[in-house]
Design a protein that fits this description.
With 390 residues, the chain is an alpha/beta fold. It is built from 12 helices and 15 strands. Bound molecules: P-hydroxybenzoic acid (PHB).
């Protein structure tokens, strides 16, 4: 056989062998999952990872014809580490997608790498509005702090409380919470007597609580990242703010399902707004709560586990739509406008902003069967992030 004919035949054989292969034997689809598995934010990492793994356990390790490989990397929630790990995952491991991101500074540190390498970046936890604007390859399956603060401002005003003080952690999501709550509460006829910001690392809440007491508001609105929540609730009670007639309200981060039982009965009666509660009533959520408890005895999923689960569902939908082909631009295009349903309820990935549009629930901490839960009692449907220009 002439060399050219031989090469042609060989190429034909190779091509037909590739075509005959089941899609599952195509190259694996690699996801670089960057999360804090150690350090003060490790609870976030464990929750997101548990959600990711449960999705794979329930749906099989092959999505859209591609075997999924998850490369979990511990960034300790240190942005410079998140960035270095993302760079390695993209250049050395050749991942098809980056995912995870517990805190906003980590997500913002990685965004330029997603852009440069044209790699989709699925934000499963971090919640400042600006993240999805930092890269055209960023999509979010968690929530935005502003998104949940607006319906809460409405509820506080409707409940007859006229004067509020805000207390937030001094970084991008905290500033979003403060601005979204304040703008809406004022539009609702309320007055904000003070805006307090506490440091991200090692905050001492005591002096701030004293200040709030002196200002005598009807309500204290709080956003702190979930791992700081038990300390803030404890200080609120210890300083006697509840006895002074001040109502504690906040984003769901303040009483997340993971820390609720650590906070204990001090949490009873606290009203918050969020997109997920472990007490959410649906068949999908029942299976989710049971699935997490089975895989991790004693663990209750919180909103971060849902962000991980929803992120995998979004990757699954995009892989199916592109028939397993992948590719950064194609995957992002396939993700835009997807409407999905998961343990939180229905949600859409907004095609314009690449951010999550979802129901926001107002909830109150109550005891159910001897355990503390956020019991949902009001729903605002399909809420978008207020931080995106129309
Ligand atoms: C964030 O840094 O974006 C963040 C972290 C923890 C939360 C909420 C937001 O509970």
């Amino acid at each position: 056989m002439h060399k050219r004919a031989f090469l042609g035949a060989a190429a034909f054989l190779l091509a037909s062998a590739a075509a005959a292969q089941p899609a599952a034997q195509a190259a694996p689809f690699r996801i670089g999952l960057i999360l804090p598995m150690t350090g003060p934010f490790s609870a976030v990492g464990k929750q997101v990872d548990a959600g990711v793994r449960l999705y794979l356990a329930q749906h099989g390790e092959t999505l859209g014809g591609r075997r999924i490989e998850v490369l979990l990397k511990d960034d300790g929630a240190v942005p410079a580490t998140s960035r270095r790990l993302a760079q390695e995952l993209v250049s050395t491991d050749k991942v098809d997608a980056l995912a995870g991101f517990a805190i906003t500074p980590s997500a913002l540190a990685v965004a330029p790498i997603a852009t440069q390498s044209r790699t989709p970046m699925v934000v499963m936890s971090a919640a400042a509005s600006s993240i999805t604007e930092a890269s055209p390859f960023a999509v979010r399956t968690s929530f935005t702090v502003g998104q949940v603060s607006v319906p809460l401002a409405d509820w506080v005003a409707r409940s007859g409380m006229r004067k509020a003080v805000t207390l937030v952690t001094d970084y991008a999501p905290g500033v979003d919470a403060e601005q979204s709550f304040t703008e809406r509460f004022k539009a609702d006829g309320g007055q904000v007597l003070g805006a307090l910001r506490v440091p991200l690392h090692g905050p001492d809440f005591a002096p701030f609580m004293q200040k709030v007491r002196d200002l005598k508001p009807d309500a204290l609105f709080i956003f702190v990242p979930a791992p700081a929540a038990p300390a803030v609730v404890k200080q609120f009670r210890e300083r006697g703010l509840d006895k002074a007639g001040i109502k504690l309200v906040g984003t769901g981060d303040v009483v997340d399902d993971d820390s609720l039982n650590n906070i204990g009965d001090d949490a009873l009666g606290i009203v918050t707004s969020h997109h997920y509660s472990a007490a959410h009533k649906s068949a999908s959520n029942e299976g989710f709560v049971q699935g997490i408890a089975k895989a991790h005895p004693g663990m209750r999923p919180n909103f971060m586990a849902v962000g991980g689960y929803g992120g995998m569902q979004l990757i699954d939908a995009a892989l199916r739509k592109t028939r397993g082909a992948g590719g950064g631009e194609a995957l992002i295009a396939a993700m835009k406008g997807q409407t999905l349903e998961d343990p939180r309820g229905p949600w859409t990935l907004d095609a314009r902003t690449r951010d999550v549009v979802q129901n926001v629930y107002i909830r109150r901490v109550e005891k159910v069967d001897g355990q503390l839960y956020n019991v949902e009692f009001e729903t605002t449907k399909a809420v978008a992030d207020p931080g995106k220009a129309k």
